Amino acid sequence: MAKEKGVKSIEDLPGIGPTTAEKLKAAGLDTLDRIATAVPADISDITGMSLENSKKAVDAAKTATTLEFSTGSEVYEKRKNIGKISTGASSLDEILGGGVEANGITEVYGKFASGKSQLGFQLSVNVQLPAGKGGLDGTVLFIDTEGTFRPERIESIAKAAGLDPKQVLDNIIVVRASTSDQQVLAVERADKTIKERNIKLIVVDSLMSLFRSEYPGRGALGERQQKLNSHIHRLQSLADTYGLAIYITNQVMDNPAILFGDPTTPVGGNIVAHAATTRLYMRKSKEEKRIVRLVDSPGMPEAEAVIKITTSGIRD
Ligand SMILES: Nc1ncnc2c1ncn2[C@@H]1O[C@H](COP(=O)(O)OP(=O)(O)OP(=O)(O)O)[C@@H](O)[C@H]1O
Ligand SMILES: [Mg+2]
Predict the structure, then answer these.
(1) Ligand 2 ion local residues (Cβ < 5 A)
(2) Full residue range of the structural domain in which residue 287 is found
């Protein structure tokens, strides 16, 4: 949905200040589209605003959001301009249809040491390459939830790509999140940095670890999934708004319901499964070899690529 000038975010709506905006966001009403389709009485309940003022806010949101109707050919033209980030391995780029796509969420799941973080490092370097040379000429927001960001690795990968390691590291903004609240906030407050620094890749490594440890057991699952849902939608909306790529890593569990074949299942349930535009499953093979399976993609068939993790980064 395209937005009219003036009202660009929910904070710009009449009667909605920062505190009220926080309340709305906490309830999942975090975009103009959502407010536009909300019932004024609910807005009033959530925020404590009068019914009359809630109605004004909803009307203003309706005016600010305009639905775009496009022909298939117009969509096709637009999609041609969507950027791709090279993974460093041509076989993997190929099954992805050119690389990790901007405007969407790419998820990689797999066991420990399968190479999820390594691919995140490689993409953080490659996105800085010029457009058409495997990059998007942009910088990186790296949300590190496990304390596994390694500047030394970035340095080696950057050198191998013929880039100045210091400059490459300066172009990666790292947020070390120790709680899921910090993780959510890092994304919620990203707009300014994205614009100022021309961020074209957001890495969340990993998406679920903090959510999993903070919300153990079945009882907390509903609350966790609600928070996770709004977090992921926020990521997708950043991807749409700024034409950037989102790369998330995910943990796996053994699913005892799968009797035949590989029982490895990504965590996070349907919310993550539906939100990821492209899903990849990475697993260890012999030595430095890794097998990457394209599990889900809106436009590419299921396929596998074999890659290597080397000192210089991801290679064929
Ligand atoms: N400098 C290096 N040179 C070559 N290979 C490396 C180097 N550093 C790490 N690796 C390889 O990468 C592996 C670790 O991969 P990575 O950290 O991406 O795993 P992961 O999937 O993120 O795991 P986790 O779930 O634990 O976060 C190591 O086991 C090693 O095989
Ligand atoms: Mg990792």
Answers:
(1) 117, 148
(2) 83-315
